[in-house]
Amino acid sequence: MDNITIIGIASIITAGLTTGIGTMLPALSEGKAIASALSSLAQQPDASSTITRTLFVGLAMIESTAIYCFVVSMILIFANPFWNFIIAK
């Protein structure tokens, strides 16, 4: 097996793991955040605007983690810097 094949296999496996873990954990976190927010809204309905605003900011930050993982996996597949290094040799 040559170096290009090894880099290709490692890139694809790493991209798959990054996408799998990077989408699974934020989804679980979003579910937990929403459940906590609904529980808080049930206990304190007067603070609904504050809880809702905080929930949306938190969900956006959690979602950005999944987007970063997706971007890293796309870079590993389509713009891996090791490809140019190996091909230049």
From TrEMBL:
Q: Which UniProt keywords apply?
A: ATP synthesis, Cell membrane, CF(0), Hydrogen ion transport, Ion transport, Lipid-binding, Membrane, Transmembrane, Transmembrane helix, Transport
Protein family membership: Belongs to the ATPase C chain family.
Q: How does it sit in the membrane?
A: Multi-pass membrane protein
- Gene of this entry: atpE
Question: Can you tell me where the transmembrane regions are?
Answer: 6-28, 55-79
InterPro entries from the UniProt entry: Alt_ATP_synth_F0_Csu, ATP_synth_F0_csu, ATPase_proteolipid_c-like_dom, F/V-ATP_Csub_sf
Q: In which domain of life is the source organism classified?
A: Bacteria
- Higher taxonomy: Bacteria, Pseudomonadati, Bacteroidota, Flavobacteriia, Flavobacteriales
Single Gene Ontology MF annotation: proton-transporting ATP synthase activity, rotational mechanism
The primary site where this protein sits is membrane
| Residue numbers marked as site, Reversibly protonated during proton transport | 63
Q: Give a short account of what the protein does.
A: Key component of the F(0) channel; it plays a direct role in translocation across the membrane. A homomeric c-ring of between 10-14 subunits forms the central stalk rotor element with the F(1) delta and epsilon subunits.
Localized where? Cell membrane; Membrane
Please give the name of this protein: ATP synthase subunit c
Q: Give residue ranges for domain V-ATPase proteolipid subunit C-like.
A: 13-76
Q: What GO CC terms are in its UniProt record?
A: plasma membrane; proton-transporting ATP synthase complex; proton-transporting two-sector ATPase complex, proton-transporting domain
